[in-house]
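Here is one chain, start to finish.
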Amino acid sequence: PGWRFRFARSLEIKAIRNALLIIAISENTARDVHEMLGIPRERIVVTPLGVDERFFDAKAPKDSKAFRSRYGIPEGRKVVLYVGGIDQRKNCRGLLEVMRRGIDHFTARREAAPVLVMAGRIREDEQFPLLQAQIEGLGLQDDVVLAGFVSDDDLLSLYGLSSVFLFASLYEGF
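Its structure:
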C-alpha cells in the first residue's frame, strides 16, 4: 500500500483508540477490535445488521423465462448464486474452482450442470480483469453469468431462483 493508505489507516486507528464508544456490527468484529487494537471490551457495543423481511420469503420471479433472458441465465440449468465483491478476501478464485469441480461432476453424470450467477458491483472493481482471466482459465465462460449490480427486487428474485447460495470468503467481520 502507498503512503496515503498507510497515513489514512494510522488516522483511523488513532480515532478508534480515542473513541469513547465503538459500535461493531458483530461479535467477531468486536473481538477483532479488542484483540487487534487493544480496545477494552466494555467500550465496544455490538449492534447486529438487520435484513429486510422480504428476503425471508424469496420466490422465483413470476416470468422466470423473461427474467433469465434479461440476465443471460441459461434455461434448464440450476442457479448457484454469489452476491458480493470480488476483492481477494472474497476468494473468487476458490469459488470458481469449486464451480469447475461441480460442473465436471454433473457433466460426468450426464446431467445439466448448474450455472454460477455473480451479483454485485463486479465490473467496476479493479480486480475485474483478473476475474475474467480466471473464468477463462478454468473454461467457465459458458458457466458463469456476471449479473453485476442488481436492484433489491431482482436480487430477491435471484435468491428465489437459486438452488444454492455459495459464499467462499476467506474473512468477514461478521
